[in-house]
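Fold it.
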Amino acid sequence: MNGRKLAAFALSGVMAVGLTACGGNGEPNESPAGGSGGEAYLVGICQLAPHDALDAATRGFKAALVEAFGEDGVKFDEQNAGGEYNNCATIVDGFVSENVDLMLANATYSLQAAQSATADIPILGTAITNYGIALGLDSTEDKVLGGNISGTSDLAPLDQQAAMLQELFPDAENVGLLYCSAEPNSVFQVETIQGYLEEMGYTCTQYAFTDVNDLSAVTQSACDGSDVIYIPTDNTAANNTETIANVVIPAGVPVVCGESGICSGCGVATLSISYEELGRITGEMAVQILTGEADVSELAIQYDTAVTKMYNAANCEALGITVPDGYQPIE
């Protein structure tokens, strides 16, 4: 096993090393904690920003590991980059110095920073739309990547999202595609769904903002030129839904979103995966790697294949939109 491990128990400042890990009641856990010696796996978590989707993915990831190893069998160094790429680099460099057993890179910038930091420590990504694009690979297909990186993709079927937009707004003519140009996977999603929407007869216009500083102005431009707006699974948008809502709701322009977290802030409807389930799938992959059941270089990118039509009741009411049967309210 690569990486340093943390001793799970200490007594009077002296580490107590046993043959098995013990639970809180002093009895051995059913699952061994970090292998021999009663030691706990140390897992570094770098999350790009604090927003609902990424929070849920981290929560599901941790739950899967704790379920497998027990509270004392795995320790997390969980850090949030606050939406800043440079912070991601600093965080993962720290994980390398700690010699963690495995890293979780939550969102594209976190994954790119981890890729640059180490070729030895196993890295699992989550909430990554397309690994080929995120990592600058020749192929944009998500498959076995080789090396020390694998993970899960949050890509919901874009053709189905386009069909949902058409179901809700069949009489619309102009669709604005609002996204952050600094996020390569947002560009990928927008270009892909634009093809589907144009085949349906919509006129599509891309509205790209560079960061939060021009988000409000670009959103206003999108409202001025669109009957409906589509926002992909974009981290900058997800972290600033209030800014978007403050423009689109007064303008009376509905927003269809790539995931439920964005929709809960500024959208009316989404076809979304469960990010908590996505994180859990990633955690199950981590268990396989840490126990030696699987090698990260041989694990294919995995997906949460269950998607749900959801709607934001408050925003739908504010815009006078009646959602057809088959949509679940976002809680």
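Confidence is low (pLDDT under 50) at residues 1-33.
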